[in-house]
Amino acid sequence: MSAPSWAATAQGLGTTRPTRSAHAGEEKLVTHERLLELARDVGVGLQENASLAPLTRLSIGGPTPALLTPQRVDQVQPLLRGLHSLGLSPRWLGAGSNLLIDDRGVPEPVVCTARLRREPQLEGGDRVRVSAGTALPGFTRWLVSHGLCGLEFAEGIPGSIGGAVTMNAGAFEGSVGKHTVRVILIHPDGRKQEHDVQPEDFSYRRSVFSSMGALVLEAVFLLKEGDPEELGRTLETYRSHRRQTQPLSEESAGCIFRNPLEGPSAGSLIDRCGLKGRRRGNAEISPVHANFIVNRGGATSADARALIEEVKEQVQRQTGVLLQEEVRVWSRS
Ligand SMILES: Cc1cc2nc3c(=O)[nH]c(=O)nc-3n(C[C@H](O)[C@H](O)[C@H](O)COP(=O)(O)OP(=O)(O)OC[C@H]3O[C@@H](n4cnc5c(N)ncnc54)[C@H](O)[C@@H]3O)c2cc1C
Question: Is 255 in the active site?
């Protein structure tokens, strides 16, 4: 890793807080050196100019100047403290299953929490602590095998615990927030907080943690006892429903739009407007589920954005409903 490669690609250093340093180029090089040092000291993997597309389920997105991938929960606080002291404001990436990232990438460093996986820990019978990178469907199955129920609805939601808590992922009337009792957060300045969840912390596909801008490090779930065999059958029902109704073998970011609070779902509105199969470049409204955009191979963020705008415009014109994006869009501006 050489300093010039970072300096050449580090528009991200635009996120550096202004200092009195005389020369912007020198400042970038100093930050580059200090970032390498920080990653080394904390023991965290750092990839410079890393493409984000392979880290998303939609396979779209340009590079970040610095991709930082902690593998242990105890590395995150010193990492974020260090980034803050360098004046850098990173973004958080989980399993990338609800993200549409600009083809030009993002100027900020990205901290990926997907490797923060360790065996879930039972805390007094019906409480389980789990770290941010644990895969939601894997965790659901782990719970079922331990005779704990509550999260069966999450079978097949391909996110990480960090993303699922932040997004309050849900399906079939269930949602992650309903079972979360404590969230361990690291704020962007490196402050750690053990937050006891209040009912108002979660709403439809939203959480207070997202508006705080904090990184979700771990979560504690409160579950009920259940019969593993019966729960296993419930999982199979949900799994087969997904197989029949969603384009699971294709590259997508799940539902693009939030369901309106009343009336037909976003997918049903899009379908009624005759938009299934509509294409922009290589992005397509899935013929299987109208609220999914699939990447037919080489789709760009511009293709997907154009399709999103077209759907919004058509649905509003034909039904009067203005759809809102559920997918998180990382743009360059
Ligand atoms: C085929 C398919 C089916 C899906 N079905 C459903 C469904 O039924 N219900 C549903 O709700 N969703 C669904 N999704 C969307 C997605 O799986 C969920 O939103 C999931 O919870 C996102 O988790 P993630 O780890 O992939 O987050 P990412 O996509 O990586 O990130 C999403 C947001 O969460 C933030 N984030 C990620 N990790 C952290 C962290 N550790 N701390 C703080 N913020 C973080 C990111 O900054 C970003 O803003 C589906 C997606 C696909 C591809």
Answer: yes
Our mutation pick for probing the ligand 1 site, out of 79, 92, 97, counting the most ligand atoms within 8 A of Cβ, is: 97
Give the residue whose CA is nearest to atom 40 of ligand 1: 162
| Residue-wise pLDDT tens digits, 278-310 | 999 999 999 999 999 999 999 999 999 999 999
Total count of residues recorded for the chain: 333
Structural domains for the chain: 3-112 (3.30.43.10), 121-229 (3.30.465.10), 247-330 (3.90.78.10)
- Minimal-distance CA residue to ligand 1 atom 43: 215
Q: Which residues, 6 or more positions from 167, have their beta carbon under 8 angstroms from its beta carbon? A: 98, 159, 205, 206, 207, 210, 328
Residues 6 or more apart in contact with residue 310 via CB below 8 angstroms: 275, 278, 280
Give the SS3 label for residue 108. Answer: coil
Q: Which residues make Cβ contacts (< 8 Å) with residue 258, sequence separation at least 6? A: 204, 205, 266, 323, 324, 325, 326
In the annotation, is 112 catalytic? no
Q: Determine the distance separating the centroid of ligand 1 and the alpha carbon of 33, expressed in angstroms.
A: 33
> Is 326 part of the annotated catalytic residue set?
yes
Q: Which pair of structure tokens corresponds to residue 177?
A: 């927030």
Per cent of the chain over pLDDT 90 is 87
Task: Give the SS3 label for residue 46.
Answer: strand
- Which residues of the chain fall below pLDDT 70? 1-26, 29-30
What is the 3 CA–ligand 1 centroid distance (Å)?
34
Q: Which residue has a Cα nearest atom 27 of ligand 1?
A: 163
160 CA to middle of ligand 1, Å?
Answer: 7
Q: What is the DSSP string of 193-218?
A: EEEEP-GGGEETTEEHHHHHTPEEEE
Calculate how far, in angstroms, residue 310's C-alpha sits from the geometric centre of ligand 1. 24
From 57, 117, 205, 278, the catalytic residue = 205
HSE at residue 128, side-chain half, CA atoms within 13 A, is 24
